[in-house]
């Protein structure tokens, strides 16, 4: 509510207007609402993925997902446009975290070593030893209906990695213009993510079954060798 003084409705945190109990209560209520929204979105996405795995993609309706999450179909539509978006939502959010994984690598580590380690860490943290998770990931990668949502995951991962690579290049004092720095980061990120996707697809079909990490490391090593080739 406006105070009539021209001040912003939500004052800057720590400023004089935030000291009253009403402002603190309003901020707390806002934070609680946001946490509830996030929890509802996550529950809908988990329910959508679980039902798709149990029944098959074509046998799941929005109404089923809403009921499993104990909300109404109207509430579902407040968060997602389609069941396909709901199924892949957590994957998109997780994909965005790969940039932070790279940022946590030691600053003295070489660029390529840091990128390769970040990619391996990112995939290993995704429950790739869980058969149920494997089935869901394979469904995402191979289902024609989910192809567009899977592309969102790949794009999100590539953009997040490119941003973190650009920051690392800048911190290392890379001698190139800003536009070239961004281009270099985007090209490298695109190559790395494409290579990781090849490794994952190979992992799905290789027999006897093997761990994902050696395939990832081998694929990334081949990319590194190709980049060094004259």
Overview of the structural elements:
With 230 residues, the chain is mainly α. It folds into two domains: 18-86, Orthogonal Bundle (Tetracycline Repressor, domain 2); 96-228, Tetracycline Repressor, domain 2, CATH 1.10.357. The chain is built from ten helices and no strands. The longest helix is centred in the N-terminal third of the chain and has 35 residues, at 21-55. The radius of gyration is 22 Å and the shape is globular. The model is unreliable at 1-18 (pLDDT under 50).
Q: Which SSEs are present, and which pair or pack?
A:
Blueprint: H1 21-55, H2 62-68, H3 73-79, H4 83-95, H5 98-103, H6 111-124, H7 131-142, H8 147-171, H9 178-205, H10 212-228
> In terms of per-residue confidence, which ranges show pLDDT below 50 for 5 or more consecutive residues?
1-18
Residue-averaged pLDDT:
83
CATH superfamily of the largest domain: Tetracycline Repressor, domain 2
> Ends: how far apart?
65 Å
The number of helical runs is 10
Major beta sheet summary = none
Specify the helix fraction band. Answer: over 70%
Number of strand segments? 0
Shape-level CATH architecture of the largest domain: Orthogonal Bundle
What's the CATH topology label of the largest domain? Tetracycline Repressor, domain 2
> In percent, how much strand structure appears in the residues?
under 5%
Structural class: mainly alpha
Principal-axes shape call: globular
Order of helical and strand elements = HHHHHHHHHH
Total domains, how many? 2
- Mind telling me the C-alpha Rg? 22 Å
CATH class categorisation of the largest domain = Mainly Alpha
């Amino acid at each position: 509510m406006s105070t009539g003084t021209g001040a912003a409705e939500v004052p800057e945190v720590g400023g004089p207007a935030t000291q009253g109990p009403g402002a603190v209560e309003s901020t707390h209520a806002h934070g609680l609402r946001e946490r509830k929204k996030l929890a509802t979105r996550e529950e809908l996405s988990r329910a959508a993925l679980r039902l798709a795995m149990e029944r098959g993609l074509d046998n799941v309706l929005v109404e089923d997902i809403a009921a499993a999450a104990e909300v109404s179909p109207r509430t579902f539509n407040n968060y997602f446009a389609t069941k396909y978006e709901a199924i892949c939502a957590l994957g998109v959010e997780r994909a965005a975290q790969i940039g932070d994984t790279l940022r946590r690598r030691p600053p003295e580590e070489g660029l390529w070593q840091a990128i390769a380690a970040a990619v391996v860490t990112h995939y290993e943290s995704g429950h790739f030893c869980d058969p149920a998770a494997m089935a869901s990931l394979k469904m995402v990668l191979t289902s024609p209906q989910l192809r567009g949502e899977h592309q969102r995951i790949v794009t999100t991962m590539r953009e997040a990695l490119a941003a973190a690579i650009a920051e690392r290049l800048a911190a290392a004092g890379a001698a190139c213009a800003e536009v070239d720095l961004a281009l270099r980061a985007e090209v490298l990120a695109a190559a790395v993510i494409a290579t990781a996707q090849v490794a994952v697809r190979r992992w799905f079909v290789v027999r006897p079954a093997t761990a994902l990490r050696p395939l990832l490391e081998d694929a990334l090593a081949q990319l590194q060798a190709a980049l060094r080739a004259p």
